[in-house]
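U., I forgot to send this yesterday:
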Amino acid sequence: MPPSLHRSPTLPLASDFLATPSTRLSPALIRALLPFDLLIVPGLFGSDEDHWQSIWENVFRAHGLSVKRVAQDNWSTPSLSAWQAKLDETLKEAKRPVLLLAHSLGAVLTVHHGARHPASAVAGALLVAPADGEQHKGPDAARIESFMPLPAQTLPFPSTVIFSRNDPWLTPDRAQTFGTQWGSTLVDGGYSGHMGNNAGLEHWPLGLNALHSLALTCHAGQVHAHA
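Result:
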């Protein structure tokens, strides 16, 4: 099924995230996330305190949601096997279905996990700016060679790919290709660079809205599976 460039009427509105000084999430978003363990999956070099992943982690924890982060031993010289082992180890600790919140190389790691484990604790995945090491020619491309080639099969869980129109690691055309291959919903993130440590996305309402929509899809799928 081809991905949808979504402007879906069912997609939660920006008001689902209330950007108040106390950083409040809407009750609807909290209800959608409560059935899941949320797992942050950072990419190359990890996610610093200004990264949307770190901000979300703190906000989710403050709202009583279950959230953890995959901790890799080597963030600057990653190997696929070592990173897979850490992800698998962390997933074994899950008590509920897991939503993976992945960025860059973490998104690539998540796709590899789906290819290796057609049945796992993963209920769904938010794949933000997957790092296209096959076409990227920057100085850090060599660091992620072991993660290439990217899997091309449909993922065994619902997923959403968010891409940026000026991401040096992923062109919109390649995002479209990956979305089609993986069976993902495709979300246009505008002009936000690589959506990482230096992007200044802060609490990133667009990403939270996409996560809300994904959580509702995953919940509906679980209800149908157990009906």
